[in-house]
TrEMBL record:
Sorted UniProt keywords: Carbohydrate metabolism, Glycogen metabolism, Glycosyltransferase, Phosphoprotein, Pyridoxal phosphate, Transferase
Taxonomic source organism: Acetobacterium bakii
Gene Ontology biological process terms in this record: glycogen catabolic process
GO MF annotations, alphabetized: glycogen phosphorylase activity; pyridoxal phosphate binding
Protein name per its UniProtKB record: Alpha-1,4 glucan phosphorylase
Its biological purpose: Phosphorylase is an important allosteric enzyme in carbohydrate metabolism. Enzymes from different sources differ in their regulatory mechanisms and in their natural substrates. However, all known phosphorylases share catalytic and structural properties. Allosteric enzyme that catalyzes the rate-limiting step in glycogen catabolism, the phosphorolytic cleavage of glycogen to produce glucose-1-phosphate, and plays a central role in maintaining cellular and organismal glucose homeostasis.
Cellular component annotations (GO), alphabetically ordered: cytoplasm
Enzyme class: transferase
Record's catalysed reaction(s): [(1->4)-alpha-D-glucosyl](n) + phosphate = [(1->4)-alpha-D-glucosyl](n-1) + alpha-D-glucose 1-phosphate
Amino acid sequence: MNSSEKKKQKEAFKAAYINKIEEVSGDCLAESSVLKQYQALAELVMDDITTQWAKSNTKYNKHQNKQVYFFSIEFLIGRLLKSYINNLGLEDIVTESLKELGLDFTAIQEQESDPGLGNGGLGRLMACYLDSSAAMDMPAHGNGIRYKYGLFEQRIINGEQVEVADNWLRNGYPFEIRKPDKAVIIKFGGTIHSEKINGNLTFVHENYEPILAVPYDIPVKGYHNETVNSLRLWSAETLEDFDLPKFNQGQFLDAVRHKSEAESISQILYPNDNGFDGKLLRLKQEYFFVCAGLKRIVRRYKQFNNNSMDGFSQKICIHINDTHPAMCGPELMRILMDEEGFGWDDAWKMTVESISFTNHTVLPEALEKWPVSMMKSLLPRIYMIIEEINQRFTQEIYAKYPHDMERNYGLSIINNDQIHMASLAIVASHSINGVAELHSKILREETFKGFYQVFPERFHSVTNGVTPRRFLMNSNPDLKDLLNESIGTQWQGNLFELKRLLNYLNDPIFSDKFNAVKLSNKIRLAEHIKKHNNLIVDPASVFDIQVKRIHAYKRQLLDALHVLYLYNQLKENPHLEIAPRTFIFAGKAAPGYYYAKQIIRLINAIAKMVNSDKTLNEKIRVVFLENFNVSLAEIIYPAANVSEQISTAGKEASGTGNMKFMMNGAITLGTMDGANIEIAEAVGPTNIVTFGLSSDEVSQYEKYGGYRSIDIYEKDPRIQQVMHQLIDGTLGFGLNFQNIYDSLLLHNDTYFVLKDFNAYVDAQNRVDQLYRNERTWTKMSMTNIAHSGMFSSDRSILDYQREIWKII
Ligand code: T68
């Protein structure tokens, strides 16, 4: 675009924007609030997007392309305004115009609430996959729940986590469109009886409680193309707002009770990551979005296919994100048999051909099991179908292995009066995949071993990926510009092109510019820390960062114990030569997870002690940033030097934060777990620092014993010292971390923290040495970025297209 064209566009934009502000606020620009400035900009952007959206939908309907639907109980999308503007290619026009109008674009963006409709990696992965699908012109849509309250906001008060409700819809949400005309009815409870209607056995559902599911659609705009896909989130409502007869009789409370019970289904997101909470309301949520989503998909399919279901499973992919939507199997069977008149065999074939399943965890406590009694009373028809699926499946297995009762029992979907949702998902899908190579191997060889023997062809592996648009281009614009001016812009369409950066490893001018970008990102984070924690940190220090949900297996404790050890060392020898370090933590603990909350308390206690100790000469600083969410993440990743990925080997399915850090040039300090292994392969052993037990070693200890944490403790005075400090008042008057102490010694250290301690200290020393050689560190950092192409979610989506959905 030449400069006069640009000028014209900017003038047109400014005029339209000023109009919009007047329209939404009734104020002129000068009097408008930042909130109204944001709302006006959001509406203007939506005007552009909705036109393209309608075109995309028309195209899909006309050409009947294969459509993918991601069914997920979480979509952690983050703020959308900036991402829409950049994807529309309006970045420069908008930024410059707002500046010329004297407005603060950053402040405007901060008015947008960050929808916390997910706990962590699982929900964020869906958002990355939607972004990549749209960027690659692939018809893929999301189907989930529009929670009125997302994940709680975390405050740190007196060093402890306090939860505050996340009322993200407080000021309305400009990027959704409510579609009451597309609402569907979901039936809960009641009874089923069979009747012969026109000679056919028909199942009739009676005395059920009807709930209305109303969709809200959010556009998913592709990067610099014309594709706009949809994220459909369902909200629960009553059919009539309230019971008028009861109201008229003066029974006010009863009249509104039904309304609030119905609405409770989409009221709140369960705040557990990697855990199973067997509550009735959760089961309702799961069926609610599965049933609503499938009904609309079938309706749309028939509408544009001459009212016929022919070819359905060739054109529709139902992809289930973990087991929360595993009722897609029985629900699709119900629709096909009870509503569309198919017999069992045909319906089953269509169901299995349509559905594929991604698993995200091997932690036994996270695997979903629903009591038969609960399923039977809440979803009587679904339960009948699950029973029948199981009957037929176990018969098949029995015929294959007649003498192996143990195997038959282990594979049964219904076991001990519980329904095993992972088993249901496997039996009802044509594809099951893990999210990193190691994880997929553990699924085949351990978690789902029996199923792998029965269906080896169904098992796949697709390593996770993250979107470079949000996590590199938008969050690290200076790096983006530097890359563009050095290696050209091809990498924006194909992240593997970042390899060209390897040509600059020995270029001192480039290295200086590269380091200047990192420094300015660290300054930005330091300002955030100053503002929120009232603490000054040195941007020249090593920013060593662990941000993720707080969980015992992720071992924030190992990181914290190392800080304590380093503190002890510095106290002993104030002249110890180390590169100054800022240890940064952030992450939420599930509100009911006491141990994780204690870890947060411990980190904050260590921070308080370290940061106030003048004798350390500011060689170390410790920061706990409250309320980790997507927006904060976007400030953190670009500023990192060290990426802490230190889970017990075999426990982290993949990790995706590791990829976001790497893409921004941080060096991974990690165990050989999840996708860390693939990062190590990509960058080579000299560009990563790894340590600790392998997953095989962990699993040997778990199976056969042989690890005694007390033995390690007794031999290592450094460990003795830090352990005592947990309980002797060092960390503050009255502060006692007895339960953490007990978990490590009394309960034999389930996650091998003490076992890996020594290796971790050595690895940390290597990090220190490497950082002190600036040239080496810069090269490592550049090499990490250069090899991050493999961890773009564009690559993951291509893998899914080829291997699982068979689209290309
Ligand atoms: C994460 N899982 C994995 N679960 O832990 C992580 N769980 O290794 C992986 O990279 C990521 O998924 C993407 O594959 C989760 O984030 C949850 O958040 C969750 C939510 C509800 C119930 C169970």
